[in-house]
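Hi V.,

You were right to ask for the full record rather than a summary. Here it is.
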Amino acid sequence: MELNNSYAKQSLHGFLNQRYLAILVTLIVIFVTVVLFMRHSAMDDTTDYYMQYDAQVLSEHYAVSDQIMEFDVGIKEYYWGISQLPQAYKQLLGIIEKKLDGIKNEPVLANDLSPNKLLSNELLNKTTVYQLKQHAIYILPYFSEEKNETFFVIHIFNQQHEAIFYQSWLNSFILLVALCLAFVIFYSLHTNKSITRQMSGFHHYINTMSQLDYTQLKQHKLPKTIQFSELVNSATSLQTSLLAQYDLQQSQQALLTREKHFLTSLSHELRTPIAIISAALTLLNSSKNINAKDKSKLIKLNNAHLKMKQLTQTLLQLWRSEQHSNVVSANVNGQYAIANKVFLLDELIEQAVTSCQQQFSRKNIQFVIEMDEHIRLYGQYELADILMNNLLRNACQYTADGNIKLVLKNKALMIENRITDNAISEINDDTTKLNYGYGLGLFLAEKICQQCHWSLDISSTDHFFRVKVRLNDANEDENIDL
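Predicted structure:
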């Protein structure tokens, strides 16, 4: 199953790289433009720097009475004191000529008529730009403490040949920068919106997939608005995984259906001969022509029949519970329930020991028993009976010296017997585990313990084989229905 991948034009990684690279280039262009404009319009402080340098060097080199040589006529001018300053520059600085109690005119500030203070501290040692006709005049009043006089450095720029910063240009430039920044912000927001829109569509697509059945999921198409290859590939992988999961569920359902039919047939095949044996035993039990010796054998036969019937029912249900993950339904041949009940565990073990002694009478089995009395257990008696008989039969079959140690303390059972080297290799061989012991052996014991939530520990060391079982009381609502 393939999704239409023609929608994927570029990767998310490439998309973000391109967009943010464009933003970076835009910011660089803006920065370079600002720097170039500042240099072209003399907005930087280079003019002030050179004027300060000229003032410091020339004021030290020339005396107040010296005629200062002009290196760049018409561009740079130098004057000692306000008295030598041209009238036009005085007007720019706000200095006017006012007669004070005498004939001689004294230059003073327009806002300060004191003859002892010619320039304010705001103008002293600071470069100020003025506009005079078609020129931009830079004036630096530099006060020389050594000569106690003000040295004026003046730079003149022609407005037609030099880029002068006007207020209208300043407003226009600020507006341009603001528009550029607004564009960058808008572009960033648009980029984020584009990413968010695709992610939102992808999220909605994923959420709807969980609500579709197999046919709808197979026909589910990815929206055309999702174009990032990473999202398309993720959606494809997820859809493929869900379809595979559906296929697996259908396969498991088909397997469970086949197993149900198998259990139905197996149950019928097992119950039929058991029913025939049961009918035959009923007739024999009702017969009056059976002597005492045959009647003893008939009792054993009846007991074996009842045990085989119970074992068949229990094994079928145990197998069904394993295949259905412990979720059990009614048996096809009527209702049979393995109900929890209270029983004495020590009595159950004694019965299993007696049965094994009778079965393995030729091996002369000797049991060494250390067992607490009157140990009450609430659980499934039938499964506990199968487990104890199975473990004891295994021990009797594989004991090397005929001795079996059995310890029961506080619902914890330990069975130990000596075994041969050949038996150890058989136990450790996975291919023979199902054949180990009597019947299904330890495999069946493990399944019973899993069913009843009992712990089973099997170990073999120093030619001794040990099985430890920890039995717990079942919950009140834990019953197995057949």
